[in-house]
């Protein structure tokens, strides 16, 4: 174990304890089991993975091994066999376990182990092994260098601000004797533990420097798969953002087209209003004005036959100009007084006699009579000459 690993070990152990104390491991195990149950039977073993603990016990010169949590099924073998024979028996007992997942734990007999329950401050949770070394002299008749020990947190009632823990210690002589037998047989173990029924208790009496290091060949593959998953996730997020941007651009284009169409419609509406206003203005002027034909017809009916007109004008304000010759020009004022089309007839200037025709030349002003009722629509009046 290198110095970097030793420096980080307290932090790693703290993370492991926090993870094991949380409900996440049980949830992940349940979830993984449910997902594996959906796979074909021949694929389920491939995706099972994880550490598989097998418990090794030595009783009456016999070695017995079984999976943690299962009943003993493999036949025992004598420790008097040579190393290859013992290894063959062990391989037969763990034949169904992948070598990369196999973990061996030496289970000590309960009578050879000392167990003490302790109440510790909560601050001791992150340094249980060191606390175990301090408590060894107080709780056991042994010194630290005489035993293999471990301290684990246990579930149970404890006063506020304190935690319940259990100190487990075994004499080094007992453990070393069994470890020596295993070394002679060529069998390496990963932990020294106790049996809790058919399962392991969950402690490791081996000190950290004696722990076996496993090189997981699947770790590199798992890291590559995790990196690939992250890259795919980022690609999916990028594709999603790209699609959203394209959809936004398409919507913006549609909005611009609709805005342009709305602008055209607004312009057409304005042109229609202007055209309607102009047409209404002309219609209004037409209805508010007197037809020139009617004025001429009225004058023709009223002026005598010895009178003729040389010039007749009507301007935009309805002012009428009449110029002509008559045998009796002065009588025209009375003649036009009863006209329904013009009013206010009056001579402009003096009446002069034309020597060529022996008629009286006159120029007369008048004003058109506008209609008394006006329609709602607007129109324009025209002038005729």
Automatic annotation (TrEMBL):
Pfam families noted in UniProt: PilN
Keywords, comma-separated and alphabetical: Coiled coil, Membrane, Transmembrane, Transmembrane helix
Keyword Transmembrane recorded: yes
Keyword Protein transport recorded: no
Transmembrane segments: 221-241
Coiled coil regions, renumbered to chain: 248-275
Name under which the protein is recorded: Fimbrial assembly protein
């Amino acid at each position: 174990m290198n110095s970097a690993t030793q420096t980080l070990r307290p932090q790693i152990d703290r993370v492991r304890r926090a993870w094991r104390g949380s409900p996440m491991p049980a949830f992940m195990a349940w979830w993984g089991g449910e997902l594996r149950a959906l796979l074909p039977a021949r694929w389920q073993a491939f995706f099972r993975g994880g550490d598989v603990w097998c418990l090794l016990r030595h009783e009456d010169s016999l070695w017995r091994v079984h999976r943690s949590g299962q009943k003993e099924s493999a036949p025992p073998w004598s420790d008097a066999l040579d190393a290859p024979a013992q290894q063959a028996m062990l391989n037969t007992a763990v034949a169904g376990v992948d070598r990369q997942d196999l973990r061996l734990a030496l289970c000590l007999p309960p009578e050879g182990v000392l167990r003490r329950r302790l109440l510790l401050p909560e601050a001791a949770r992150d340094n249980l092994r060191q606390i175990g070394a301090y408590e060894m002299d107080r709780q056991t008749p042994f010194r630290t260098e005489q035993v293999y020990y471990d301290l684990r947190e246990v579930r149970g009632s404890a006063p506020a601000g304190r935690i319940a823990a259990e100190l487990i210690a075994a004499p080094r002589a007992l453990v070393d004797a069994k470890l020596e037998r295993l070394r002679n047989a060529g069998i390496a173990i990963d932990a020294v533990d106790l049996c809790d029924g058919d399962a392991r208790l969950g402690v490791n009496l081996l000190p950290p420097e004696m722990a076996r290091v496993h090189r997981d060949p699947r770790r590199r593959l798992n890291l590559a798969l995790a990196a690939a998953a992250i890259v795919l996730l980022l690609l999916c997020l990028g594709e999603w953002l790209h699609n959203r941007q394209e959809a936004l651009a398409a919507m913006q284009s549609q909005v611009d087209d609709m805005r342009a169409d709305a602008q055209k419609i607004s312009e057409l509406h304005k042109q229609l209003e202007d055209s309607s206003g102009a047409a209404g203005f002309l219609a209004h002027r037409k209805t508010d004005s007197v037809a020139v034909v009617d004025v001429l017809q009225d004058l023709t009916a009223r002026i005598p036959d010895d009178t003729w007109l040389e010039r007749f004008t009507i301007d935009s304000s309805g002012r009428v100009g009449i110029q002509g010759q008559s045998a009796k020009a002065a009588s025209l004022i009375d003649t036009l007084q009863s006209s329904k089309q013009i009013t206010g007839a009056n001579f402009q200037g003096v009446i002069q006699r034309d020597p060529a025709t022996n008629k009286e030349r006159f120029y007369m002003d008048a004003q058109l009579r506008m209609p008394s009722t006006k329609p709602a629509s607007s129109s324009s009046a025209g002038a005729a000459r």
